[in-house]
Amino acid sequence: MSIIRPYGDMTGDGMVQLSFTLPVETDKRAEGAALQLAAKMGMDPAMVVHAKPMGDGFTFFVVYGTVNHLVDTSKVVVAERDFPLLAAKEINTLVKQKMRRKLVVVGACIGTDAHTVGIDAILNVKGIAGEKGLEYYRELRVVNMGAQVGVPELTEKADAVLVSQVVTQRDAHLHNTREMSAAFREAMPAGKRPLLVVGGPRFDEMMTSELGVDRIFGRGTTPREVASYLVDALISKKAA
Ligand code: B12
């Protein structure tokens, strides 16, 4: 069935839980304000199940209630994986046979972003979720430039540039990514520039053309997905 409702206590009861902060002291009026917001968002009835002060003049709420909205899953549009998921051995073999040299991957957190855990999970041998990172792949040469790297520093000759953006305040991740892709477009003609890949937990994977990059990876990405994508984009698709 393509039309569904959220599930809370019983199938199809429409129950959802929502958390937010309001700039008000924690009291009864604040709870009333939270319920007013919930009602305006289509939660009816709703109840405040948690209200906690967040410093002076701010309250954090969790509201639980029913929505009447329906979701049509047949109308959902997402960025599907359009490349095969390969094993490390297959990836190494393809690079060796088709490129006859190591595939060079440069990674960094750009702008003021110092959240390196995500890009390290993709690049470092220790990896994430039981998968080894790209450094483990014999035929990949990985240069991890670390945190707060300026766009002009990303000039190392690479087949793929992997950029991480975790901070999204004031859309910093979008501005930094656009700046990075524009710099590459300016510095190198199409066909000569490396594959541009960005990742981070709050990207919309559908925004590739808007941001001028070849691929966006979101939360929960694993190194094998990234390695498989690189081989597909740089070797398999090129060969075809
Ligand atoms: C650890 C952490 C820190 C550490 C970072 C240490 C380090 N070396 O990375 C420290 C303490 C330094 C830190 C500092 C700050 N932090 Co912080 N931090 C976090 C925290 C708790 C976890 C992030 C993390 O490591 N996740 C685990 C990794 C594995 O997940 P990931 O990053 O999503 O990566 C995965 C995917 O997204 C993807 N991916 C990510 N990047 C890439 C790149 C590519 C190329 C690819 C393919 C895939 C990919 O693959 C990864 C593996 O699956 C988050 C909250 C949270 N729970 O997420 C806040 C959080 C990110 N921090 C936040 C903030 C605000 C800050 C500070 C500004 C706080 C302050 N006022 O000083 C500073 C900023 C410092 C700076 N200059 O960047 C906010 C950001 C809010 C926002 N809207 O932008 C968060 C969300 C906390 C919050 N709820 O407020 N932080």
Q: What does this entry look like structurally?
A:
There is one protein chain. The chain has six helices and ten strands; from the N terminus they run ββαβββαβαββαβαβα. It has a five-stranded parallel sheet with strand order 7-6-8-9-10. A three-stranded antiparallel sheet has the order 2-4-3, with helices on one face. The longest helix is centred in the last third of the chain and has 17 residues. Cobalamin binds next to helix 3, strand 8 and strand 9.
Q: Tags for this entry?
A:
binds cobalamin, alpha/beta, three-stranded antiparallel beta sheet, 240 residues
Q: Concise description?
A:
The chain is an alpha/beta fold. The protein has helices at residues 28-40, 88-99, 117-123, 172-187, 208-211, 223-239, and strands spanning 3-4, 15-22, 43-53, 59-67, 71-72, 103-109, 140-144, 160-164, 195-199, 215-217.
Topology diagram in text:
Blueprint: E1 3-4, E2 15-22, H1 28-40, E3 43-53, E4 59-67, E5 71-72, H2 88-99, E6 103-109, H3 117-123, E7 140-144, E8 160-164, H4 172-187, E9 195-199, H5 208-211, E10 215-217, H6 223-239
Parallel strand pairs: 6-7, 6-8, 8-9, 9-10
Antiparallel strand pairs: 1-5, 2-4, 3-4
The structure holds cobalamin.
